[in-house]
Amino acid sequence: MEQIIRTVRDFDGALVVVPEPEGAFPRIAWGDAFFYYAPDGSVPHNVQPYGTIVTRNHPGDTASDLDPPDRWRVNIHVGRARFRDLVGEDPRTLDGRPRDHRAVDRVMPHPVYGAYGWICVVTPGDRTADTVVSLLRAAHDDARRRSARRHEPVRPPEND
């Protein structure tokens, strides 16, 4: 987990937020990590992180069984096209078939946000570590492009 956090911190313009006790974040987020494209070093407003690491079960999100020691999950927004390439299904039409979201070192649809183009890996290992880093880099680059579009100057309409 720490290696992934260090790697993402090295991405140009990355902001990694790891809430700690007594900070401004709620207790449920303590120890988790949130990845943003934020070259100014501030958490962007009205923008979701492009990736997260969760270290425990959250209300409504227990399928990965993250409460036992040494279990954690990387979540990455990959979009529809990459999701299809990785999972073999369209995220908008996930069939609801049973999946073992407790399985480690395996790329699969996020148990809650899969329909929105999110994948996850529980405790990445030899099979998925490089893929996770590659997907986080691509998600970071996607976030950078979205940020650039949001900050493009508005050009006045041309007069005919």
Question: What does this protein look like?
Answer:
- The termini are far apart.
- The chain is built from three helices and six strands, in the order αββββαββα.
- Helix content is 24%, strand content 16%.
- Strands 1-2-3-4-6-5 form a six-stranded antiparallel beta sheet.
- The chain is of the alpha+beta class.
- Strand 5 (108-109) and strand 6 (118-122) form a beta hairpin.
Count of alpha/pi helices? 3
Rg, Cα atoms, Å: 17 Å
Span of the ends, CA to CA:
57 Å
Largest sheet: 6 strands, antiparallel
Helix content: 10-25%
Which term fits the overall shape? globular
Topology order in helix (H) and strand (E) letters: HEEEEHEEH
SS-based class = alpha+beta
Provide the β-strand percentage band. 15-25%
> What's the count of strands?
6
Spans with pLDDT under 50 lasting ≥5 residues?
none
Mean pLDDT: 92
Strand order in the sheet with the most strands: 1-2-3-4-6-5
Summary keywords:
single chain, 160 residues, alpha+beta, six-stranded antiparallel β-sheet, 3 helices, 16% strand, globular
Q: How is the topology of this model organized?
A:
Blueprint: H1 2-9, E1 14-17, E2 33-37, E3 51-54, E4 73-77, H2 79-87, E5 108-109, E6 118-122, H3 129-150
Antiparallel strand pairs: 1-2, 2-3, 3-4, 4-6, 5-6
